[in-house]
């Protein structure tokens, strides 16, 4: 209440925030939700609902976070520079300019993209311009009421835990109103402390993507319906498809232009059928070889392919496996497969990636969820001069990257490769759905699903913590009638198999994994970017029906496992 009254008495520059504060006067629950905590700053930066308060995304929380990064950079040297990008969300351009203005006031040169731009182009700009850090204003695929602030290190990866902790301490020591240095954006431009990133950087980014091409000839004759879901993908994706010779692209008109309200897709996530419905409707008129979709900041990519008269939405795991097989297959065919190739995926992604990688003599490395960990693996190879060994990095949540030119997932790269892959199989009389089914026949029917359970507000955060604490205190002996043969606690860095415990060498993370006697597994993980717990279900069968039966049985046990009514 003290902080609420302080904000209410403050002459806020954003009058909408003052109006919001006035509107909740006397509503203790609404006040508490906005002020019970500061938005947490971590390796993913900030993410939250737009609005007034310390637990909301607004110009003041953005300025405070930026001041924390500025303090960190100035303590580690002088003459620092940063790159800044922003997506199509509500207030994204405003927050980007406020970020630039705070950096400038602290003597740090801010390079700002002159127009909305995908997240991977920010990672690219940090490296290309040799910046000390980067910021991308985006909330990825969250609903319209959210915005966010992703922070990057000089390597183009999202910041490390160590840097996040140091920056978080700087933020905590900064008063949100009196502790922030800021100057007018135009003054920063005049003084040369803020400059727009030239178009040649975007051109260089697209050339770097094109260098990852797996097909040497133009992909003429491929018909594509594309939706950028009202985000940043329209220009870079259509440009890269033109560069590889895809000459028949129909863009979903209602979702072509930037629109932070996402009126035709309230949850602009290419994993969700509802978000793709306008594209699917258009497919029934155009009859393309595939539907392609990128999320608002164009770092995730989803597809749908017609099969047996209906459109099949391919999962992130399926597209990841398809891309891994395609890249390894093409590099083998071209004779440029490296020695000791490596594919990188996460602990929650499909187990199918391992046998596919091994088929081509590659090693499948598994890391924690978060593309920065895939970026770390690329960096390790680069340090040894072995970056060519990297074939593909992917997450089950629709994130893919096939080169080391950036250190984050890239839907522009994924769009190019998926279209080349579709063209490749079209020459063989196959769709991508046919190609996936052929891989299932070869390697077994792996099936994966994710169950999401939302927990909004302060009580929700407590409920999530209680669920994880309860599971740690008492691991289940069996799930869905199958004995639990092993478990892993990634926060405690302990794995148990057959009663024998061993250490986990990955960084600590709030994740629990249970392995069952039938080869199935369940992983429980609170989301790092949304107020929800994710439960990953994984099973394998000799037939589609058998694997589906395993998943159905696991799904029925998910709520009892979490203690949810």
Gross morphology is globular
CATH class of the largest domain: Alpha Beta
Secondary structure: number of strands: 23
Low-confidence stretches are none
The average pLDDT score comes to: 96
Helix count equals 18
Largest sheet: 8 strands, antiparallel
The structure class reads alpha/beta
How many domains is the backbone divided into? Answer: 3
Describe the protein's architecture and organization:
- The radius of gyration is 24 Å and the shape is globular.
- The protein contains 18 helices and 23 strands.
- The two termini are 33 Å apart.
- Strand 19 and strand 20 form a beta hairpin.
- Strands 16, 17, 18, 19, 20, 21, 22 and 23 form an eight-stranded antiparallel beta sheet that branches.
- The protein has three domains: 39-197, Alpha-D-Glucose-1,6-Bisphosphate, subunit A, domain 3 (Alpha-D-Glucose-1,6-Bisphosphate, Chain A, domain 3, 3-Layer(aba) Sandwich); 205-443, Alpha-D-Glucose-1,6-Bisphosphate, Chain A, domain 3 (3-Layer(aba) Sandwich); 445-562, TATA-Binding Protein (2-Layer Sandwich).
- It is α/β, with parallel strands linked by helices and 565 residues long.
């Amino acid at each position: 209440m003290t902080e609420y009254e302080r904000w209410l008495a403050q002459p806020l520059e954003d009058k909408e925030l003052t109006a919001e504060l006035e509107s909740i006067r006397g509503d203790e629950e609404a006040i508490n939700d906005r002020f019970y905590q500061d938005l947490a700053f971590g390796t993913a930066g900030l993410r939250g609902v737009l609005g007034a308060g310390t637990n909301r995304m607004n110009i003041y929380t953005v300025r405070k976070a930026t001041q924390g990064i500025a303090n960190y950079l100035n303590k580690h040297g002088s003459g620092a520079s940063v790159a800044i990008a922003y997506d199509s969300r509500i207030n994204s351009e405003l927050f980007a300019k406020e970020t630039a203005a705070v950096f400038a006031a602290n003597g740090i040169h801010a390079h700002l993209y002159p127009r909305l731009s995908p997240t991977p182009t920010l990672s690219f700009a940090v490296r290309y311009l040799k910046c000390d850090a980067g910021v991308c204003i985006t909330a990825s695929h969250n609903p319209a009421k959210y915005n966010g602030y992703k922070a990057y290190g000089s390597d183009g990866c999202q910041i490390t835990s160590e840097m996040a902790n140091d920056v978080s301490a700087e933020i905590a020591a900064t008063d949100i109103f009196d502790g922030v240095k800021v100057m007018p954006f135009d003054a920063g431009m005049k003084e040369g402390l803020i400059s727009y990133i030239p178009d040649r950087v975007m051109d260089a980014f697209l050339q770097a993507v094109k260098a990852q091409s797996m097909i040497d000839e133009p992909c003429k004759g491929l018909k594509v319906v594309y939706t950028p879901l009202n985000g940043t993908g329209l220009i870079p994706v259509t440009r890269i498809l033109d560069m590889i010779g895809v000459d028949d692209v129909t863009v979903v008109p209602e979702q072509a232009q930037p629109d932070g309200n996402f009126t035709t897709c309230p949850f602009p996530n290419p994993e969700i059928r509802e978000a793709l419905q306008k594209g699917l409707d258009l497919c029934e008129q155009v009859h393309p070889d595939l539907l392609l979709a990128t999320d608002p900041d164009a770092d995730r990519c989803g597809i749908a392919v017609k099969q047996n008269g209906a459109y099949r939405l391919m999962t992130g795991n399926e597209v990841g496996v398809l891309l891994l097989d395609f890249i390894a297959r093409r590099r083998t065919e071209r004779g440029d497969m490296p020695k000791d190739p490596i594919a990188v995926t996460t602990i929650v992604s499909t187990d199918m990636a391992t046998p596919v990688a091994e088929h081509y003599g590659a090693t499948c490395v598994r890391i924690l969820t978060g593309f920065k960990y895939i970026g770390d693996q690329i960096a390790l190879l680069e340090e040894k001069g072995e970056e060519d060994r990297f074939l593909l990095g992917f997450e089950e949540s629709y994130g893919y990257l096939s080169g080391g030119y950036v250190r984050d997932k890239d839907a522009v790269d994924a769009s190019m490769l998926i279209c080349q892959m579709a063209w490749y199989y079209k020459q063989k009389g196959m769709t991508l759905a046919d190609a996936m089914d052929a891989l299932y026949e070869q390697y077994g029917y792996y099936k994966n699903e994710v169950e999401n359970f939302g927990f909004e507000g302060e009580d929700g955060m407590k409920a999530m913590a209680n669920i994880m604490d309860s599971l740690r205190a008492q691991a289940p002996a069996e799930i869905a009638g199958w004995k639990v043969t092993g478990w892993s606690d990634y926060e405690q860095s302990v794995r148990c198999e057959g009663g024998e415990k061993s250490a986990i060498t990955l960084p600590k993370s709030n994740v629990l994994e249970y392995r069952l006697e039938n080869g199935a597994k369940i992983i429980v993980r609170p989301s790092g970017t949304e107020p929800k717990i994710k439960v990953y279900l994984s099973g394998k069968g000799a037939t589609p029906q058998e694997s589906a039966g395993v998943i159905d049985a696991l799904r029925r046990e998910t709520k009892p496992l979490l203690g949810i009514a």
